[in-house]
Amino acid sequence: MKHPLLTLCLLLCLAAGLASCEEETGVADEYAGWRARNEAAFADTLAKARTAIAEAKAAHGDAWEAHCPWRLLRTYALPDGAAAGSTDTVCVYVVASGTGSGSPLYTDSVRVNYLLRELPTASYPEGRMHDHSGYSERPEDIFSPQLGVPATLRVSNTVEGFTTAVMHMHIGDRWRVYVPWQLGYGDQSAQQLPAYSLLHFEIELKAYYRAGIVPDPWLTQKK
To answer: What average pLDDT does range 102-117 have in this prediction?
Structure first.
């Protein structure tokens, strides 16, 4: 039979060892309370967008969009006439506006420069990047007219929040898009992206193609 004092010492040593490993790797704190943190971050972004839009409408009426970079988009999957709640909404910050007149349809393909980040953490203060178009993960390269290599994607083959955003974009638009976890990967992890993650996309629409039209392969590799 083990001595009680020896057992206590072993337990204390084990706890100290685990704490030391957690301090070295940062695993314990990096994603602690991840769902709550992501939901709070999206709620803050949504509140900021709503406030900015309300102020712009009060000051400029129907011309508010020319004076406010924020947009709120209800998910395309919501039935007509249904009220959109916070989990049915995508927040958009317009970085640059294009000159195109039309927008992609659900059945279209798009050519986009894009990146995807998660919520900032101690190890990744700008948010760890999980996906991007082109060969470089540097934003200045991803969106560079000379170095960027757009990806060709089916609008219907992306997460609901991404699909919703691109269906409102015009060629030349560059948007920061904030997607709540309900319109992203939900309660499932996606490779290294944890479950319940707010998705932060930056998207630039370069072109789109109607169903049945196959883009020229050369164009998909150029700006």
So the answer is: 97
The answer to whether 137 and 100 are in contact (CB under 8 A) is: no
pLDDT value, residue 214: 64
Q: Which residues contact 199 (CB under 8 A, 6 or more apart)?
A: 116, 118, 159, 161, 162, 177, 178, 179, 181, 184, 185
Q: Give the N- to C-terminal CA distance of the chain in Å, as an integer.
A: 73
pTM: 0.83
pLDDT in tens, 74-84: 999 999 888 88
Instruction: Tell me the backbone φ, ψ of residue 137, rounded to 5 degrees.
Output: -95, 5
Amino acid letter, residue 81: G
User: Which domains are delineated in the chain?
Assistant: 34-77+84-220 (3.10.50.40)
